[in-house]
Amino acid sequence: MNNIGESFFQGAMQTVQNAVHYLPEPLAQGVDFAGSLLRSDNTTTIEFSDSAQELINRQIEVQLELQQVTFVSNIERSEHEGRMAAVRNIRVG
């Protein structure tokens, strides 16, 4: 990989690492947000077992990881398309 590619990749990874600190947090932990939508008089609550709560928390973690992977993938795709545009211009000329 040339110096430009390496510096771009290092810059992209630094951006991802910095972005992780600014990822939005869920409005509510678990299902409390959905429970508050279902409650009209604030007396009824929805409770889940510990295993269900663990599954919900794991799903949130997986979704955050997917956002990070998508972010890096989009950056890499943009870099690739930029390089391919130069190659296509050479072929045409």
Explain this structure.
The model has no long low-confidence stretch (mean pLDDT 76). Helix 1 (3-20) packs antiparallel against helix 3. The chain is elongated and about 65 Å long. The chain has one domain (3-92). It is mostly helical. The chain has three helices and no strands.
Strand portion? under 5%
Low-confidence stretches: none
Q: Report Rg.
A: 22 Å
Q: What is the helical fraction, as a range of percent?
A: over 70%
Question: Number of folding domains?
Answer: 1
Q: What order do the SSEs take from the amino end to the carboxyl end, as H and E?
A: HHH
Number of DSSP-assigned strands? 0
- The N- to C-terminal Cα distance equals 26 Å
Counting helices, strands and paired strands, the structural category is: mainly alpha
Total helix count? 3
Q: Please state the average pLDDT score.
A: 76
Q: Could you describe the largest sheet, including whether it forms a barrel?
A: none
